[in-house]
Amino acid sequence: MKTTIAEVHQYVGQEVTIGAWLANKRSSGKIAFLQLRDGTGFIQGVVVKNDVGDEQFQVAKSLTQESSMYVTGVIQEDSRSPFGYEMLVSKVELINQAIDYPITPKNHGTEFLMDHRHLWLRSRRQHAIMKVRNEIIRASYEFFNNNNFVKVDPPILTGSSPEGTTELFHTKYFDEDAYLSQSGQLYMEAAAMALGKVFSFGPTFRAEKSKTRRHLIEFWMIEPEMAFYQFEDSLKVQEEYVSYIIQSVLKNCSLELERLERDTSKLENIKAPFPRIMYDDAIKFLHEQGFNDIEWGDDFGAPHETAIADHFDKPVFITHYPTKIKPFYMQPAPDRDDVVLCADMIAPEGYGEIIGGSERIHDPELLKQRMDEHNLPLEAYEWYLDISKYGAVPHSGFGLGLERTVAWITGVEHVRETIPFPRLLNRLYP
What we know:
alpha+beta, CATH 2.40.50.140, BirA Bifunctional Protein, domain 2, 8-stranded mixed sheet, 5-stranded mixed beta barrel, ATP-binding, asparagine-tRNA ligase activity, aminoacyl-trna synthetase, cytoplasm
């Protein structure tokens, strides 16, 4: 019976065959312990010389790190293993003997590991991070499908930008200028007017020359847009969504979080509702904390966000930012024209902004005025103006950055470990 490591719990006491790679091994006289992986998980294979004979035992002892094989044996429960099971091996069939595998069980420098990212992904730590990433994606689809959102795919090549073109990658689209998308938001607004509640999930690109632990050049975003949803409605969806993915990871990735040595007590109580602080009050709070480098009208940097987040034990919404530091499409507050109906969700533990969202302008005249103030070319955005000209309704949306969210939930320090093949300021390989 062929199976996978993830499914061995169904075959306790039975003999099965698994296609696997050797992650590590050790031997003790007449017993060899094989640390096996198959992509779905890790399991220990125990090879006893007296049970398998000299020839098979020598095959097992000669295996090198990352050699591939079919391994056959009986599955048995093992209370000493975090996984809970091990295999009593009866046969090893070598497929490929790996020679001089470059990543050995010792400390390697970050640049070396990044140069070998295609192999580093095989390690237990990276495997655990990718499994958590996958669970967040799975839970996201589940949440939005359960709440009657429709998945829509916006284009990656665009002729304009929702936030200006200063941080966009430029390319030629035959005889026109084009850009790699930094957000699908404008297109998702159009889709919301057709389908009500929509969400997208795809890659976005920022030509921002930043080297911080929170930044990638290419990253993935989940971007919902909702017709007839005002600012408060959107905040409720955001906190329910983040609560949902946190609880899904805790439920389905407990082994991975343990492997990453994540303190799950900091995640277990993260359930809606989340605290809020208005931008005005956040500035006052920072001044009280000794941050005299920021004034009203400035955007927050990483130290400011961390100081605010450390005051709470859940993600916190910072709301009502100044109009002048936010994009053109955000709806003004009803009682003030100097702030807009927007919010950034700041994750605890220094992970910074994971969601940015707002109510969108639906008054065509105001929208055109804002576009003029931002010197945006009308011909490039005429289609976007049509959204508010024909049947305008209040609508809101937000974008969640997947990699920052993965970093926070896993406790990983740098986002470069939260995406399979990171694109950084000075890295386009492998």
